[in-house]
Amino acid sequence: MDQHDRDENRSGDDAGEFDLLIIGAGPAGLAAACAAQDAGLSYAVVDRAGPVQSLVGHPQQIRYFSPADEMAIGGIPFPVAGGHKPTREDALAYYRAVAAARHLNLCTWEEVTGLQPVSDPRGFLVRTEPRVAGEGTGPIVRRARCLLVCAGTFHTPRALHEVPGAGLPNVLRRLHDPTPYFGRKVLVVGGGNSAATAAMTLAEAGAEVTLAMRRPPDPSHSHLRPFIVRDLLIMAEEKRLILRTNVMLAGVTPTTVDLARYPAYPLLEGQREAEPVTLPNDFVFAMLGYQADPCLFQTLGLPLATDGLPIYDEATAETPTPGIFIAGSLSRANIILESRRRAVEIVALVRERLRGV
User: Fold this and answer.
1) Tens digit of pLDDT for each residue in 83-124?
2) What is the pLDDT of residues 141-162, one digit of tens each?
């Protein structure tokens, strides 16, 4: 259903009634939409930005961890060999194609601003505000029997705390295109897959890269995938980048960075104790991960766990608010296969529940 069709179905600020309202048009949200369509459920997908916006923010030409067949949704094969790891561009083109081929009911560039439980029948009134001027300025209200929140955690980059110079313009939190950093001295800070991948991407684009990690890249470390550790260590051995571990960023100036010793993690066999050092530097990429949108959780009235993500029942994916379910990376799923599979399972559960009402 396209935007014109949706507008034709509205009555004032009422945009219709649905069995399931999906919040978030990432891979998990789109997989849930396909599953809802297959299950004969009326549904809509609301997102504050465009489809798979989290992927849009990834570096150009980056290759994903998951092979193509594990990223496929909606019964539509990924047009890349099954064992091949797609690029960002492959994935964006694929998910757009799925949305078009399945005629998914996407309501993009709408921000959820209100939620009201209702009865007779039991469900929710969900209020959104358009973020595109051409669609009017008034609120849009939809009624839904159940909600599936797939909004993801790729909302706000985590900031450097209490680091002098962290607010300087040469300190960046997202890497979109590595090309401008050719020949420049770049420090990447972070211990996860994104930081390691960014460092390797920049090095391959001709930047002089130092990767600063608090913890050594041990293959047993759950936050780093084994093949990333392998490639990172190979590049460090070949001196295509410099790897500094057991260190933390202590200060930034327009032309230098200060690294201090971080003794919390044990050294690997044969590794020397890190020494405080000041390095000449042009740009810093603080790749410390992302945080989910706390305003959305507050709007939906969802209680949060200590990690800042919603509390939910692991067996049913239902939150303490009956009828509101969690999927995608909000459920701590860290790969697309797991997040989309879980989203499809939740849609089946919702279908069975609505049948029994």
Assistant:
1) 678 989 999 999 999 999 999 999 999 999 999 999 877 899
2) 999 999 999 987 767 777 888 8
List domains and CATH numbers for the chain.
Answer: 3-155+292-355 (3.50.50.60), 158-286 (3.50.50.60)
Strand segments, DSSP code E, in the chain are 14-23, 43-47, 106-108, 110-118, 123-130, 140-149, 156-157, 171-172, 185-189, 208-213, 242-245, 247-252, 256-261, 277-280, 283-286, 290-291, 324-326
Structure tokens that stand for 132 in this block: 């595109």
Sign of CA dihedral 350, 351, 356, 357: positive
Could you tell me where the DSSP H helices lie in 11-159?
Answer: 27-38, 53-56, 68-71, 88-101
Q: What is the pLDDT of residues 193-205, one digit of tens each?
A: 889 999 999 999 9
Tally helices (H) and strands (E) across the chain.
Answer: 9, 17
Q: Is the distance from CB of 168 to CB of 145 less than 8 angstroms?
A: no
Q: What is the pLDDT of residues 274-298, one digit of tens each?
A: 788 999 999 999 998 877 788 898 9
Q: Select from 159, 204, 151, 95 the least CA-distant residue to 343.
A: 151
Two structure tokens written together for 148 = 């599936």
Calculate ∠ Cα 310-152-113, nearest 5°. Answer: 75
CA atoms within 13 A on the CB side of 22: 34
| 3 state SS of 63 | strand
Q: Which amino acid is at 169?
A: P
- pTM score, whole prediction: 0.84
Q: How confident is the model at residue 33 (pLDDT cuts 50, 70, 90)?
A: very high
Lowest mean pLDDT among 53-57, 109-113, 291-295, 322-326: 291-295
Given a contact cutoff of 8 angstroms between Cβ atoms, the answer to whether 41 and 111 are in contact is no
- The two three-digit tokens of residue 232, written as one number: 């990172």
- For 6, the token pair is 């949706």
Structural tokens at position 267: 């050294």
